[in-house]
């Protein structure tokens, strides 16, 4: 017999299951694959939602359609793909197509493309290029923030091409700064006078040279096979990356290394490939001026020089690239945009340089543009960088640390006016009583009119009769025409200004303004613009950093090198260099405290706060960074050419500091950056383990004090809680006694009992009957609930801290800190060249074979831990026994690091320091004779 109540749950479940199977089966079964048309539609929908994870999740969670009639939805609309989210990871691409290598002529009509960003998108990103933000402890940017991974354009999107545009701020020919002329001044020799080596020494040297060359040819073969004409090889996976506009950075960067190593066939093949690079187009919207100059422009010029100036293609491509880069200098003060948005829509508008630029990115262009001017006879290239040099010279003694420049500076040339004060309108504007402009603020109920809060200075410039042009100089963009009849309300003005975050609301513009706009006069209405200025600090309220390391390095490096390249004819480079090095020696260079009492030096950073009554100049950051290791070579070269012999000893000790930093790690490779313990004296410094431990754990005493305070608070809370609990327990009442619930006694009759018995027998079911009260049983005693007793408060006792000794030993073990290291900011090694660069300079300057010995140890360690099938890879942690390969091989591995290792063991006449000047990417330029 079916019992409904027992199986009703299963019945409901069966019904819903049947309906679900029918509803979701669709036109095909689960085993059937969707049709191609269905898959395509599904992919389009997924792509259109994937850019918004929150929206995608909401859609996925919806399992039943909501059918609502929306008339607008019935109209066919074009599909608009939303912008993708920028990926944090660096994708590895396979099967490299020859991107941006088209040599075919292109017409201006091809400059229109779906890939061109809108005006707003470009304007919002002009001063702050979209770059990947490194995680905590990631590598320090080499000189700035130039790496941006780009992917090839889709095949259905036409590329945009750069085109030559009229300059907004041209330099009159009579004002162009010319190259210094005349015979070169006598400059002391830099390179040591080497004598002939023994046969045994030569055999040993040449054997090491072959090993270094093999490492280069292996990496070059991997690049040629898996990343040809791309920027970088991924040496583990065999893929490639394009972080520098996709113009074949490794190819161009390696040209002169191919020649130096005698790989002439490979060199000529690479020169033919350079012809295919089209610098007038890129999937990347901005050009990092500094990185492009040192890698591409420097690489092309150096390859032309080192090969005897026989390959005209190299110079032609250098000029082609330089013409594009010159657009970045078209600003009111001729200071360049360090990230140049080259596409015509943006490049056709006037711009100012940035208000917060990296020192190295604006101060390290001189060597490349000077050499190009020498080779081409075109003075505009020298003029471009000479103006930067003049601005640096003027600013050098106006900084918080006179003699040096901060890592960030304001290059806009625009001193912002103080808009907190009323804006006085000039009499020529015809305003009533010459009163300042006032409008209502954001609050529409405000009774008083206050001064219009302009976020950017705006100028109205008259054009045709009845029409005026609006120009926003701070954003440096023309945004449209202002018609008299269209200016009845601020909402219309706001729409035409298109200034982000402008504080304009629905309010009437004073009629006196519009009525007095002249029809065709030079200026209709001019609100105050910025006052002209040279380089300046970014803000008076921030702490500035002064260093020879990242974001500053090559600005100082280029001062003596530019002096050499100009044959000593420009004294300002010598005076600027010497003034800066005097400050470096006084405030930045320090002796670290080390267990072996080694007499070596590091160059740290000085953090200088805003000026105050405190006499302290700044706080020394006792850092030794791989990027700073170039300083030994620079000071050594400066010591020779400027007669600063005392600097040569400093140069040796700085270089030894980097060699020591290699030796003490597990891998034998120096990390990106670490902090040490500075000595109080440069001449006497004994190892003190207690002082080292105190530097690792400076908060031991405060940690113990904090624990004791917490313990006192806990004990007080415990005593208070105990007293309160005892009082509450005493106040609690005793449990009530049992009470009998009287029930009415009735004498049941027999029929009643029989009836109950009869009903039980006639129920006809196996189910238990309803509860039957036995009227004859004894009455039950009802127990009253016991009152709730008070609970003891929850208290958490403080955990005893680690002792000073336990804390320090744990940190040393967990972080694998060598003796003398306080902390390691970044444990990576990304195949950097700066340490071996200074080792090479020291060998060429002193002739001491010690530098070859330590250089070989460095090469052996690097080769052991970075070698891959296709080349060499950056590693994640130099303190590990077996570091992880990061699948990244920057172009400077072939352009710089291996070149310096090779030149260290090559014959000393190859790239002599008395004949060549190497740029910051190790590209050699011929010195004037």
UniProtKB/TrEMBL annotation:
Pfam family, any one: Glyco_hydro_47
GO terms, biological process: carbohydrate metabolic process; ERAD pathway
Active site per database record: 291 (proton donor), 553, 672 (proton donor), 834
Cofactor dependency: Ca(2+)
Record-level Gene Ontology MF annotations: calcium ion binding; mannosyl-oligosaccharide 1,2-alpha-mannosidase activity
Pathway noted in the entry: Protein modification; protein glycosylation
Keyword terms, alphabetized: Calcium, Disulfide bond, Glycosidase, Hydrolase, Metal-binding
Binding site for Ca(2+): 920
EC number: 3.2.1.-
GO cellular component: endoplasmic reticulum; membrane
UniProt-annotated stretches for the region Disordered: 87-117
Annotated Polar residues bias: 100-112
Family: Belongs to the glycosyl hydrolase 47 family.
The protein's name: alpha-1,2-Mannosidase
Protein source organism: Glonium stellatum
